[in-house]
């Protein structure tokens, strides 16, 4: 039996993120196909090399923002950058406000663990706590643990 994700409430400070972006959708499971393909393209084209220096070395972020009523959203792969960092023409620069988040740590194959972790959080953990999801950016936090023997990633979801 797979262990349940670990959850901890944390405060994220305001941060600047610079990265590459696609628009995708939950409709017809498009995001389940397009986001992994976007990561493959990111690595194949070594796009990380064109990003500004990260303020947290070794950290990559995946983030969902600008959700539409039709289930569409923007997905960014990027780094936390200095406030003064700029984006190249094919990149985006976002300033994320400080937020109270639930940090959900999931383990296993990322293509399965991440969507399962989001579903578990919204369907099981969140309703049992009395908290609600807040508007804002949802983050995937990829650090040294992502390449471990048992891969781990943190999902950071705004709550109130």
Q: In terms of topology, how is this protein built?
A:
Blueprint: E1 6-12, E2 15-25, H1 30-44, E3 60-65, E4 72-81, E5 92-96, E6 99-107, H2 110-129, E7 138-142, E8 152-158
Provide an overview of this structure.
The chain has 160 residues and is α+β, with helices and mostly antiparallel strands. The protein has two helices and eight strands, in the order ββαββββαββ. The chain has helices spanning 30-44, 110-129; strands spanning 6-12, 15-25, 60-65, 72-81, 92-96, 99-107, 138-142, 152-158. Strands 1-6-8-7-3-4-2-5 form an eight-stranded antiparallel beta sheet. β3 (60-65) and β4 (72-81) form a beta hairpin. The longest helix has 20 residues, at 110-129. The N and C termini lie far apart (31 Å).
Radius of gyration, taken over Cα atoms and rounded to an integer in Å: 15 Å
Discrete helix count: 2
SSE pattern, N- to C-terminal? EEHEEEEHEE
Strand elements, count: 8
| Mean pLDDT reading | 94
Note the main sheet.
Answer: 8 strands, antiparallel
Spatial order of the strands forming the largest sheet: 1-6-8-7-3-4-2-5
| Amino-to-carboxy terminus distance | 31 Å
Into which percentage range does the β-strand content fall?
35-45%
Overall shape: it is globular
Share of helical residues: 10-25%
Low-confidence stretches: none
SS-based class = alpha+beta
Provide a concise account of the structure shown.
It is built from two helices and eight strands; from the N terminus they run ββαββββαββ. The protein has helices at residues 30-44, 110-129; strands at 6-12, 15-25, 60-65, 72-81, 92-96, 99-107, 138-142, 152-158.
């Amino acid at each position: 039996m797979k262990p349940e994700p670990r959850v901890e409430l944390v405060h994220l400070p305001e941060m600047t993120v610079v990265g590459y972006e696609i628009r995708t959708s939950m409709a017809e499971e498009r995001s389940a196909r397009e986001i992994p393909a976007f990561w493959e393209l990111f690595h194949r084209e070594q796009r990380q090399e064109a990003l500004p220096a990260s303020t947290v070395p070794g950290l990559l972020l995946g983030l969902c923002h600008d959700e539409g009523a039709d289930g569409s959203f923007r997905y960014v792969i990027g780094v936390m950058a200095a406030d003064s960092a700029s984006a190249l023409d094919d990149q985006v620069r976002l300033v994320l406000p400080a937020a109270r988040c639930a940090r959900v740590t999931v383990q296993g194959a990322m293509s399965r663990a991440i969507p399962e972790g989001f579903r578990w959080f919204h369907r099981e953990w969140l309703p049992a706590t009395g908290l609600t999801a807040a508007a804002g950016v949802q983050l995937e936090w990829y650090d040294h643990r992502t390449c471990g023997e048992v891969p781990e990633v943190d999902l950071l979801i705004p709550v109130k």
